[in-house]
Amino acid sequence: MSWKASFSKGITSFQAGRLEDALIQFNEAIKNNGENQYPIYDSRAAVYEKLNRGKDALRDAKKTIDLAPDRWQGYSRSARIFLKARKFDACVKMADMSLQRIKPDNVKRREEMEGLKEEAGKAMRAAEEQKRRMQNHMAKLPVEIFMEVFRILVEEDSRALIQLLHVCQYWRYIAWNIPALWETLALVRRRPAEKAKLWIDRSHGRIKDIHVGSGVLESHDGWETHLTRIKWDGVQACTVYKWDLEKFLKSINQTHMLSNIRFLDIEDEIGNTIDRTKLLVEDSKIQHLCLIYAHGYGSMALENLRHLTYLEIRKYAPPYTSFVPVLENNSLLETIILEDVDLVDTPTEPLQLSHLTRFEAIHPAWKEEFMGQMIMPQLQVLRVEGGATWISRGLSSLSTRGLGNLTELILCRCSATSESVIDVLKSAKTLQQIYFSQLYNVSNNVVEALAPEPPRARKGAPSPPPPNPADLLCPVLSYLSILHCPDVRTGSLVRLLRARNPPLPSSPAPLEEDSLTEPETTAAAPPPARILSLTVDGCENIEAEWLPWFRQNVKTFSCIYMSRKVAGYKR
After folding, report:
1. Alpha-carbon separation of residue 400 from 352, 360, 370, 376 (angstroms)
2. Domain ends where: 297, 320, 345?
3. Of 64, 76, 84, 82, which Cα lies nearest the Cα of 108?
4. H-type alpha helices, 340-458
5. The domain containing residue 320 runs over which residues?
6. Is residue 356 packed enough to be buried (19+ CB in 10 Å), middle (13-18) or exposed (0-12)?
7. Residues 498-507 pLDDT 10s
8. PANTHER family from the entry (predicted)?
């Protein structure tokens, strides 16, 4: 059989869509002395193209060009294959060579190649635009800029280092070789030894902040051995959970390095017996101290501290017999947080805490006059929660000394009179947030003080003027939360909102001709700030029919009488 017969059968099979049969026939045609016939290779290339066998199709297209370099078929076929392969430069080149060989009167073929060339050009421009958008332009920046940006991000949140390592290979390379980014070592339950080794290697041992979290002590992979390579003279912050830091430093003869620590956060467990008094050395530079369940600290050890700006003590069982000297020795304190702490001593003279901005006492056990002896002119946040001791005298003393910077007042389940709380409100002109919870027989009186009831006009007498905004307490109050206070009444809250949230004008009134005259020099008092959020959850005496009115007059309003769990108990 001659190659022409097999070739003809192959064309018929190709046109019928029987590609495998066509491929067999074209192969037979080549074997039957058709190895030098370019139509066979061009047709077989078309079959390979349909079968998505691009390499084989391109090989036959090249063979077609070799056999018939003056014919357009091989170049056209190559152009189509290159377009599918997204090799746009080669596609345009082959299309141009094909157009040079197509006769001018073959309009259909020329239009086909021109369209193919235009399509390749559009695809090429789109690919270039995509490449431009995906290109890492930051790689052109100096490495020093990268280092500074990365340093700022990691200083704000040490966890940002993990995110930087996963952005791209270039960022990973830079971050991998900046020791300053690896100065915070936070060990957790999962593979602490592996992480300690990596961080210490990357930072060259210059760890400044070390965290030993919950569950690390249960890991027995030898994580402590890696900590011996840390240059402890540069460690400035330690946050440890149940880990005996002093014992470890003693084992490596580095206990003298404790004087360099400025941030110390210790959390132990109930029944802890670890003696931690040696951590607070006499020449300590600790500025931030947080102790939770750290019963191994004696109150005398705290007297060694002179540079505290932050003091937080929680769940301390033994009574503090000398806490007043701690306050006297640290006049730069800005934050004091005490929870379940028994303070035995009481200051005999006023304590000057000129820098204190936040004071929190949760379930305090102190004498009534303790808080009253504290002078805190810069106080911004005052929180008292729980405790059996009355705090009325302390609140009144604070208001007498002035609370001109107080912005947030939180009172929960504490014993105080409404008069003492109102005294605080009278003194706190900058108060923005009030949070009361389970403050019985106090909250409603406070609400009435915030918006006093206007005097009633006598019969036949003219109506009295509305209250002067300058006379309202807490003129910048915007957030009011009163939770589980059964004494709060609907009328008090309505008067409060009518005084502080008057209806907003829908549109400005037109100016009259007489209003264009020169205004008087006497300036009216500015209106009080609007109440933006009002929460009265658990206040059972709020009348339900007034709830739509409250929601209409306050931007954020919540009144949940009881939870589903409590409602289930009621049933």
Report:
1. 15, 20, 15, 11
2. 345
3. 76
4. 392-401, 418-427, 443-450
5. 231-345
6. buried
7. 989 888 765 5
8. STRESS-INDUCED-PHOSPHOPROTEIN 1 (PTHR22904:SF523), TPR REPEAT CONTAINING PROTEIN (PTHR22904)
